[in-house]
Amino acid sequence: MTGKPRVWISRPTFPDVEARLDPHFEVAAEPEEIVFSSTELAAKLAACDAAIVGLKERVGAAEIAGAANLRIVANLAVGYDNLDLAALTAAGILASNTADVLNESVADYTWALLLGAARRMGAAERWLRAGHWHGTEFKGWLGLDTRGRTLGILGMGRIGQAIARRAAGFGMQVIYHNRSTLPQAVEHECAARYVDKPALLAQSDFLVLALPLTAESRHAIGATELARMKPTAVLVNIARGGVVDDAALAAALAERRLAAAALDVFEGEPDVHPALCALDNVILSPHIASATWDTRRAMTAMAVDNVLALFGHGPHAGHPPSLLNPEVLAVRPAP
Ligand code: GLV
Fold it and tell me: Which among 102, 211, 214, 243 is the best mutation to test ligand 1's pocket, defined by most ligand atoms within 8 Å of the CB?
């Protein structure tokens, strides 16, 4: 390698955080949010040694075909369904995510959505803004309480656990389903009890989805699962679009087979199923569960740390903190 290695940053982040790269790298940071075509993305990746990308960048075999110098793709997200990990690994390219730094912000936002859906905040606000409020009605805008109800969590990783820990404050009992049961100490700390998926669907008054999108989890909640839920239940998806069959959900909400939903993620983002947009018993938000100043800065810092560390710099020199395919280092050692 001659000269400094090159880092490409696919979207605006925080210049003061990115600046930590400057002494060691030639940095090319995109000045605005762009949706790159596969060809444009391939050209960007072919011209750098490290890339910091976001969820809009879908990186697979085609996009890395010409990226001979690329050593790492650092994802600005904890989920990494936008990366073809097998293709990256086969090409000797590391991938990293932003594990853990966003757990608490995402958990807070999950509760904002859950309570917002339970208390019909979105629809009530739209109604007020439209000038329909002519005095408080005793039986107007009645919603659902959380106290004494059951919170179900599908996907009990660190984010699911952070959501569960907050439930005690709302007087809820927590059940969860996960690929594996949690160690007893963690179950105890979260005051959560493992149940099988049919029981989770049948017993949850509020069901939160916090599992990654994989081939197995696609449509984990579809027509069959929705039919098993209580008609008084509320569904909250802060995981990924595609985990829910949005068309089936819209039908269940429209027919009041489910009381309400709150969705931060959608199949085919940024498109939202038109049937969902037409419903008043669903709160929709544009994939912002981790979007706080502190957390987005921490996510940027983590991506920067992964890149710095691979090239032998920064606080984790030699040990990128959140590699998804560390086995690559055995066949293609750090530069
Ligand atoms: C956001 O959705 C993330 O995966 O970080």
Answer: 102
